[in-house]
Amino acid sequence: ARASGLGNWAIYHPEMTRSASYRKWIEAELVRAVNGDEFDLVYQPQVNSLTGETVGYEALLRWTHPKKGVIPPSEFIPVAEKYGLISQIGSWVMQRACEDARALPPGVTVAINVSPIQLKCDRFVNELAKMFEQTGTRPEQIEIEITENVLIDDHDAVRRQFRSIRSLGCSIAIDDFGTGYSNLGSLADLPFTKLKLDRSLVARLGTRENGGAVVSTIVNLARALDVDILAEGVENEDQVVLLRAAGCRLMQGYYFGKPVAFGKPGDDESRAAPL
Ligand code: C2E
Ligand code: CA
Ligand code: CA
Ligand code: CA
């Protein structure tokens, strides 16, 4: 009964997220969206908090549905993963991010989110290589972000994929670090280059929950593994001070800049260089 009324939903209701009929609707609409022109990338700066310098940008996917407006990635990525559409969407993201990266200075990276499902595809690395060929983007400018969850997958397979990605020249960041169940011992032999401290840990800094101890531990882990550490979701000056005290200098979050469309600084969600 609900499914028949889907087309009539005038406004967005959070409870739609959980309903099976909403997921079905998203699935059907996604198929059209991938082939049409409804996706866009926005870019959020990654900053060296000591120098104020922007060292990179994370590319974040946006879907503007012609009738429903903006649908957040948290709602459609899981559906795309479930119904086998993520690789196609991921290819679009890779292509667009590579094209955009060409406008940035050589030292500035673009970070691309990659679903563990994409990573599992044997084609993935070949496709990435082909993308570099087609766009002329230097692999050194692309960082692949993969959530910590991937570390619970088949370790040897993950390591092989990481190696192949690295041998292209890309760097690899472990996203949302500190929330999952990764086997810390197994981290050491994976060739990634950065840990991204999850924003839930940053949010706990300075509160009674003593988030500082956890953050320091992860900073020290990064140091021991000889990889970079970047704090996500930094929203205020207090967090900046506490993160610096813990030894973390790379930061990303609303305090430094919201995700913006390529080319128009400050003009959220419309297209033009974040320079
Ligand atoms: P993520 O990779 O952890 O991305 C960071 C999310 O935090 C983004 O949400 C960003 O807009 C938001 N954010 C940034 N700074 C702050 C802050 O200071 N405070 C708060 N509260 N939030 C902040 P967004 O863009 O809605 O993306 C949500 C998730 O969707 C991403 O989490 C990522 O897992 C996924 N995603 C986004 N784009 C892609 C994509 O192209 N491919 C794939 N596979 N996943 C994507
Ligand atoms: Ca990310
Ligand atoms: Ca993250
Ligand atoms: Ca996340």
UniProtKB/TrEMBL annotation:
Species annotation: Oricola thermophila
Keywords recorded for this protein, A-Z: Membrane, Transmembrane, Transmembrane helix
Keyword Transmembrane helix tagged: yes
Shown residues within the full chain: 233 to 507 of 512
Protein name, UniProt field: Bifunctional diguanylate cyclase/phosphodiesterase
Domain EAL: 23-273
GO molecular function: cyclic-guanylate-specific phosphodiesterase activity
